[in-house]
Amino acid sequence: MPKTDLKKRITAAAKAGLSNAIANRRHLHTNPELSFEEHNTQRYIAGQLDGLGIPYREVAGTGLVAEIQGGQGTGPTVALRADIDALPITEANDVPYRSQNEGVMHACGHDVHTSSLLATAGILAGVKDHFAGTVRLLFQPGEEKLPGGATLMIRDGALKDPVPAAIFGQHVHPPLEAGKVGFRPGIYMASTDELYLTVKGRGGHGAMPHNAVDPIVVTSHIITAIQQLISRNTDPTLPAVITFGHIASDGGATNVIPNAVRLKGTMRTLDEAWRKELHLRLDKLVTGMAAAMGATAELTIGHGYPFLKNDEVLTRHAFEDARRFLGEDRVVELPIRMTGEDFAFYTHHLPACFYRLGVGSPALGGQRPVHTDTFDIDEACLETGSGLMAWLAVSSTRL
User: Fold this and answer.
1) Which residues does residue 134 pair with via DSSP β-bridges, in sequence order?
2) Which of 91, 215, 269, 346 could form a disulfide linkage to 105, CB 3.0–4.6 angstroms apart?
3) What residues have CB less than 8 Å from 282, skipping those under 6 apart?
4) pLDDT at 363
5) How far apart are CA 275 and CA 257, in angstroms?
6) Contact, 278 vs 229, CB < 8 A?
7) According to the model, what pLDDT value does residue 188 have?
């Protein structure tokens, strides 16, 4: 089948499958499950794959790997990934598909990713006689929680027998309106590590600080000094950020100096060598400053995801393929961002392309950011998401 005819067929299939994709998305949104607890989600995805006649196997506890064999003979394997877990957020939206699991919500769009990939699977099953090779579908758990479900998928052989020639992933992007997508060749997203710091002093009366070792004052100096690691020690051309989002003392009152202060934060950068160096400098800084002020400090670093790098050649091919499929005005190039994603692990194993799916709409009454209790989407994005991913998969088997 000529590529132009295949494009028309995929476009038509995406349009025809939109209502089913929306139904799947709403079911998943109504029944979200936290990272590594996606047992019902796994069963639901398996049921949908059974209905399409697509074989699969369970991996990473609550994940699935499925494969669609092309009918045109041997060819490369192309992997497509969707994450399936939700966040510990109570939904505020008053919609028919509101989360029924209190305190759990698909606030990062993983319901969109999963329903889109299921729709893509249906499209590819319908055109499998017109491409060579294999399309491997990865339904991955635990993207939102360390160590990241991608590491477990890789551990369980999701990238083996054979190693895919390429892997694609897409992620919702509320600032971009539905019907559009965005790409970024090269380094795109930051590494992300979790910081847990405890500063221990000696408590006492607030009116007699000379008889105590005030961990709050020590902590304030440490926080300021840590920011200087970014402003004075990091190469100004290299993005990096350290943020503490949680500070709490062990006790304390208006006139009581506590014994200890505990902090939680994040460290992000776009260079693995500097990431390792920052780990060492952070530990040396906090212990040294605390000791100089009569306190002690203990730093624990939760090693998270590496930086995400999109393969230059693959991503530029995908950019042009997307323009051919959607139209030039619906495909944009994106800036680097300091958020993290465990899809990054895949990008350090094989050529990868992680792109953004527009989901915004004026009808939603303004932007609905991810990781908020009002996140929502224009469901028309599912037609774009499923059709484009099918098109990229088929196009990549012909590279």
Assistant:
1) 69, 77
2) 91
3) 195, 226, 229, 242, 267, 299, 301
4) 86
5) 35
6) yes
7) 98
User: Quick one: pLDDT band at residue 398, thresholds 50, 70, 90?
Assistant: low
At 397, the pLDDT band (50, 70, 90 cuts) reads: confident
Amino acid in the structure at residue 210: H
Cα angle vertex 110, ends 305, 362, to 5°? 115
The Cα–Cα gap between 94 and 138 comes to 32
- Closest-CA residue to 340 (of 171, 123, 219, 214): 171
Question: pLDDT tens digit string along 25-54?
Answer: 999 999 999 999 999 999 999 999 999 999
- At 254, list the tokens: 């208006």
**Distance of alpha carbon 373 from alpha carbon 107, whole angstroms:** 7
Q: Kindly report the average pLDDT of the chain as a whole number.
A: 96
Mean pLDDT of 284-297: 97
- Where residue 396 falls among pLDDT bands split at 50, 70, 90? confident
Q: Which residues, at least 6 apart from 43, have a Cβ–Cβ distance to it below 8 Å?
A: none
- Catalytic site residues? 85, 143
3-class secondary-structure state, position 84? coil
Please, are residues 34 and 106 in contact by the beta-carbon 8 Å criterion?
no
Pairing of strands 240-249, 260-269: antiparallel
Pick the CATH number of 3-187+307-396 from 3.40.50.360, 3.40.630.10, 3.40.50.720, 3.30.1460.10: 3.40.630.10
Residues of the chain with CATH 3.40.630.10: 3-187+307-396
Per-residue pLDDT tens over the stretch 111-143 = 999 999 999 999 999 999 999 999 999 999 999
Question: What SS3 state is found at 66?
Answer: strand
The per-residue pLDDT for 279 is: 96
Task: State the amino acid at position 157 in one-letter form.
Answer: G
- Please, where in the chain does CATH 3.30.70.360 lie? 192-305
Q: Which residue type occupies 208?
A: M
Q: How far, in Å, CA of 138 to CA of 342, rounded?
A: 13
User: Out of 3.30.460.10, 3.30.70.360, 3.40.50.720, 2.20.25.90, which CATH number does the structure's domain 192-305 have?
Assistant: 3.30.70.360
As a whole number of angstroms, the distance between CA 299 and CA 302 comes to: 10
